[in-house]
Give the backbone structure.
Amino acid sequence: SYLNSMGRGLLNFLDTNLPTSYQGVNTFTLPDSSTFTIPTYGTAARPNTAFNQMTSISNNTDSDYHALVWQVTRRMTNNWQLQASYTYSQSLDNGQNSVTFSTGNNALDPLAPSNEWGRSNFDVPHKLVGSAIWQPSYFKGQKNFAHYLLDGWTMAPIVNLTSGSTFSGTISGSLPSASCAGSHSTGLNCAAPGSNRPGNVPRNSYRTPGRYTTDYRMARAFNLTERANVEFSAEAFNLFNHPNISSITGSQYNVGSCTGATNPTTNTTSCTLTSNAAFATPSGGGIDNGTNLRERQLQFALRLRF
């Protein structure tokens, strides 16, 4: 199956009280000696000096989702059945938000929101889900030990394999105070608060490790009398105890030494960036605490029917 979903005119939140034109260009040198530049709002005052940030709700965000889905189904035959599906997809947007006023400035450059076009926060290119049920009855009709021990069980695994979540690398630190006006004094381009990602890398270019879980259930009913039985069940979530990472260190570089920025005419700043060794490693505990994604969990139950 082919799936497509397009969003047009979605909400975006941008600071509209920044200078209406760029005042210069900031240059950043990476550890490998390559450089990138970002236009800056520099030391120019805000148009409305009575206010600082003025967030506008704009309908200038678009999104595109494309997916191919393959499904396999085997109905219960010879005591087992199988269901599996694989989705190959791509989700792109230029800064979609699902929470009103989640940030005061949702783009690296409020004058160019189209530059935010990239992978969506929820872009998951690969997703494989499979489940099966097996009810062995190889010794059915026999009154031997193997029949009572092995037959009558229901075993049902569920396997879920997905790509990780997208995230952007960011730059920690600040420009020299002389680089920006006091009313918008932060951000790589003085677009406080803005998005401090490297300007040479598209948004959401990185991805957390994939998420893999296997859940398993087995159960069997034991007859006590003609009307009563007891059912035993055992369930395991994340059976193989695979660590699923959800929190990642996004700080990719730190601002080092800077030069320039003292001339209000050119508004030009040059800074060196240093690498953050912790970039893309688990942070804040790192392990996903979702019900089915955390550490292995086992539960057992007995149910009496009469």
About this structure: The mean pLDDT is 87. The two ends are 46 Å apart (CA to CA). The first strand starts at residue 2 and ends at 15.
